[in-house]
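Hypothesis: this fold can be encoded by more than one sequence.
Test: take the structure tokens below, design a sequence, compare later.
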């Protein structure tokens, strides 16, 4: 620190230095109360609004708070996706009915419903098979698919999805509009302040009935859409195995020998049908032809000149 002797300085310099020191002291005293007042004011505002929350730790890749809450409508749209599973299960022909029953019983134990069920018995001219159409909740999908896959060999499993969000939003908007319009009509019908004609009351009731019918129709559409999107469709097709010995392409001679009796029966049936069609013609045509032949011979005998006349 440098010390300056005041006695060695001129008088005008001493006066200037003293004035500068007094000015700095005065400014320091005036600034300090203002800063204390500002700090006190900030503390009061903080106490009034509450302590500021601690910064939240965000996971890597998470959007910033401004982006997450910038537009509520962007994040409020819920997707409605209809998912469909088409499964082909190949198994022995004598096990198709048991597998069909097992999958249906498993669906009954889960949050699942059977929409359609069919069973075809194995006949001479058609193979056996079975189909199941179900709707299952996503939480029970794995259990149902496990039962299906345990019945035989899964030859194909196709999964498809359809976005029905726009349809759901459209139907919900119609329901809101129709509900508001119905409520306004009911309030108008209950309002007895003015003199109203009978024709006006009947017109309001007719419009109210039509609006309620439209509202019920939209509610049914929304229910169907919710069932299609909240549950997943599972369609299972059971079909029998085809071995190389039984296959027509692998064993055409055996196929021909097996079908020989059927071909012969069809041929005999065709001959019988032809005879049945010709029998009425022969029964009527042969006697008629015989009579015409006799008449023609009689006429020729009558026209032939006699030898006595010559």
């Amino acid at each position: 620190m440098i010390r300056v002797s005041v006695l060695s300085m001129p008088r005008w310099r001493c006066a200037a230095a003293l004035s500068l020191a007094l000015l700095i002291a005065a400014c320091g005293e005036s600034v300090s109360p203002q800063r204390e007042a500002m700090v006190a004011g900030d503390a009061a505002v903080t106490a009034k609004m509450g302590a500021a929350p601690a910064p939240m730790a965000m996971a890597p890749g998470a959007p910033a708070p401004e982006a997450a809450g910038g537009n509520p409508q962007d994040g409020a749209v819920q997707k409605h996706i209809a998912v469909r599973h088409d499964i082909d299960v190949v198994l022995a022909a004598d096990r198709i009915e048991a597998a069909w029953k097992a999958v249906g019983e498993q669906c009954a134990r889960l949050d699942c419903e059977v929409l359609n069920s069919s069973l075809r018995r194995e006949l001479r001219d058609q193979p056996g098979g079975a189909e199941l159409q179900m709707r299952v909740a996503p939480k029970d999908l794995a259990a149902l698919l496990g039962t299906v896959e345990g019945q035989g060999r899964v030859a194909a499993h196709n999964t498809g999805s359809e976005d029905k969000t726009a349809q759901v939003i459209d139907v919900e908007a119609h329901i809101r509009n129709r509900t508001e319009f119905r409520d306004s009509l009911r309030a108008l019908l209950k309002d007895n302040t003015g003199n109203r004609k009978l024709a006006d009351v009947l017109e309001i009731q007719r419009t109210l009935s039509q609006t309620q019918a439209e509202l019920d129709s939209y509610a049914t559409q929304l229910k169907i859409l919710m069932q299609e999107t909240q549950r997943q469709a599972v369609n299972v097709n059971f079909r029998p195995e085809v071995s190389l010995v039984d296959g027509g392409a692998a064993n055409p001679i055996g196929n021909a020998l097996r079908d020989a009796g059927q071909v012969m029966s069809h041929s005999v049936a065709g001959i019988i049908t032809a005879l049945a069609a010709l029998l009425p013609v022969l029964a009527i045509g042969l006697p008629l032809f015989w009579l015409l032949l006799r008449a023609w011979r009689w006429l020729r005998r009558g026209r032939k000149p006699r030898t006595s006349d010559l």
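The two ends are 189 Å apart (CA to CA). The chain has eight helices and five strands.
Hypothesis status: open.
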